[in-house]
Amino acid sequence: MKYCSECGAPVVLQRQRSAHAWRYVCETCRIVFYQAPRLAAACIAEWEHRILLCRRAVEPEFGCWELPAGFVASGESAAAAARRETLEEAGVGVSIDRPYALLHIPSVNQFRVVYLACLLDTTFRTGAETSDARLFAEHEIPWEKVEFATTRDTLRHYLAERREGKLGFFFAEIVPAWLDP
Fold first, then answer.
1. How many angstroms separate the CA atoms of 133 and 126, rounded?
2. Could you tell me which residues come within 8 angstroms of residue 86 by beta carbon, excluding any fewer than 6 positions away?
3. Measured torsion, CA atoms of residues 73, 39, 88, 101, in degrees rounded to the nearest 10
4. Phi then psi for 27, rounded to 5 degrees?
5. Euclidean distance between CA atoms 21 and 44, whole angstroms
6. What is the pLDDT of residues 24-50, one digit of tens each?
7. CA–CA separation, 169 vs 9, rounded Å?
8. Do the Cβ atoms of 72 and 41 come closer than 8 Å?
9. Which of 103, 111, 122, 135 is deepest in the core (most CB within 10 A)?
10. Residue 180's pLDDT is what?
């Protein structure tokens, strides 16, 4: 951040005593700018116990498989974002059932909410950010190509709970191994 969105004056990075954190502050109008984590939404979309995964056609992790996911737009609900991302990445609509997981990824300043959903169709069309979209039975999931911990951890937890017949709510804080003390 370089300039104040209120008055246009340059901002500086200052340590805030009360929060023990660094914040951008306008030296002219004294507004403090708080940088909140971004919210992303995803869904575990199923058809006959098979799960939709999309192959990424963009970085990061080009070529890896992931749940349909993306950032929530301003004014958009998280559930609407999960529906929109599934339509954009796989070309299909979903019916959202309920929230299933909340993941905190502090290293990238992000929260991700994952919904359970039912596919309305199985005629997939890839989007600008995907090169493939397909359904996988549990034993077919290409785990070696599921690079994002958010997808890997959520799917493993979900599949274990589905086998037990007890779907709860999953919360995890995703910390890369290189940051874990």
1. 6
2. 43, 45, 52, 68, 92, 93, 94, 117
3. -140
4. -75, -15
5. 36
6. 999 999 999 888 899 999 999 999 999
7. 45
8. yes
9. 103
10. 54
Phi, psi of 79 (to 5 degrees): -65, -40
Q: Cα 39 from chain centroid?
A: 7
Q: Which helix (H) or strand (E) holds 151?
A: helix 149-164
Q: Walk along the chain (181 residues) in steps of 10 and give the mean pLDDT of each run.
A: 93 82 91 90 98 96 97 97 98 98 93 98 96 98 96 97 97 78 54
Pairs from 2-7 (Cβ < 8 Å, separation ≥ 24): 4/28, 4/29, 4/31, 4/33, 5/33, 6/31, 7/31
Instruction: Provide the whole-model pTM.
Output: 0.86
Cα(84)–Cα(176) distance, integer angstroms: 28
Structural domains of the chain, ranges and CATH numbers in brackets: 1-35 (2.20.70.10), 38-173 (3.90.79.10)
Instruction: Write down the pLDDT at residue 179.
Output: 57
